[in-house]
Amino acid sequence: MDWILNLPIVWMGLVILVACYATAAIIYLVVMRLAVGERIRAFKAISPGMLPPLAIVFALLVGFLAAQVWSESDRASTAVNREASALRAAVLLSEQFPGEPQRRLDELIRQHITTAVTNEWPAMSRRGATLTLVPGPLAEALRAALSLEPRTAGQTLAQRELVLAIQNALDARRQRIVLSGSSVNAVKWGALLVQAGLIMLTIAMVHCDNPVGNRIILGIFATGAAAAVLLIAAHSRPFSGAIAVRPTLLLQVMPEGVGRQ
Q1: Alpha helix (H) residue ranges in the chain
Q2: d(CA 239, CA 229)
Q3: Domain span at residue 254?
Q4: Is 65 part of a structural domain of the chain?
Q5: What is the pTM assigned to this prediction?
Q6: What is the pLDDT along the chain (261 residues), one digit of tens a residue?
Q7: Is there a domain that residue 220 lies in?
Q8: What single string gives the DSSP state of each residue in 175-240?
Q9: What is the number of helices (H) and of strands (E) in the chain?
Q10: Number of domains composing the chain
Q11: Is residue 115 within 8 Å of residue 137, measured between CB atoms?
């Protein structure tokens, strides 16, 4: 489903809607072709009371999956916000060490942001980013901060906060990379789609003696099911697709210039 999940929202919605309508049409045609003689009486013997329990199960599945993808999307956004805030704090604290230490820290933070935007974000969108590689520039910035030799009480406090800010940035980066691998697995998708198919099948059987009403009800449910699937699919991967967490905040905290006096 990668190609579907990476489509713009309008095209994703159109593909899902067409798929739901096609499924409803196939189920309708098969049931109506079979609804003759003894089979039509068997179909009509199916109680309409089956539809509410099936609909409740479908609604619960949609609710659980929506809660999962929204939670993961919010956590991914929070991780990027934390990383950007920590890097901004590190840039501000580096001003307490003017000269070469400040220029060095600014350069390392700039390198980290550039690497995150140009290398890590595309890898996260493909769910290929891992924690195997330590972010070199940020690790070097931490070593540089620890090696500073404060001369005043203010610099001592600034060094402590600088180290803490870089550690927070490292932790936030770890969280966003872990969250980049999250998705709705095949079992959950399968359960949701099978449940939707069962509801369509039940509708088609219950109303097999009323073709016009059957088509109307199937069309209404197929539209609602498509909307639910679109809602989950659009948010299923925090760092890919049309509704993805972007590195905008990291770019906003990029040091204004390396080598400043």
Answers
A1: 2-5, 9-34, 38-44, 51-94, 100-115, 121-125, 136-146, 153-180, 186-206, 211-235, 248-252
A2: 19
A3: 80-183+245-261
A4: no
A5: 0.84
A6: 678 888 899 999 999 999 999 999 999 999 999 988 888 888 888 888 889 999 999 999 999 999 999 999 999 999 999 999 999 999 999 999 999 999 999 999 999 999 999 999 999 998 888 888 788 899 999 999 999 988 999 999 999 999 999 999 999 999 999 999 888 889 999 999 999 999 999 999 999 889 999 999 999 999 999 999 999 999 999 998 888 999 999 999 998 754 443
A7: no
A8: HHHHHHT----HHHHHHHHHHHHHHHHHHHHHTTT-HHHHHHHHHHHHHHHHHHHHHHHHHSSTTS
A9: 11, 0
A10: 1
A11: yes
**Measured between alpha carbons, how far is 256 from 253 in angstroms, rounded to an integer?**
8
Closest by CA position to 131, among listed 179, 185, 74: 179
Residue 179 lies in a domain: yes
Q: What are phi and psi of 127, to 5 degrees?
A: 60, 35
The conformational region for residue 241 under phi > 0 = left, psi -120 to 50 = alpha, else beta, is: left
Q: What angle is formed at CA 78 by the lines to CA 72 and CA 83, rounded to 5 degrees?
A: 130
Token duo for residue 239: 């760092």
d(C-alpha 115, C-alpha 130), whole Å: 14
Asked whether residue 258 is domain-assigned, the answer is yes
| Cβ contact 230:192 at 8 Å | no
How many CB atoms within 10 Å of residue 23? 19
Written as six digits, the tokens of 168 are 């927070």
Q: Copy the structure tokens of residue 60.
A: 């619960």
Kindly calculate the radius of gyration of the chain based on its CA atoms and give it in whole angstroms: 27
Q: Is 41 exposed, middle or buried (0-12, 13-18, 19+ CB in 10 A)?
A: exposed
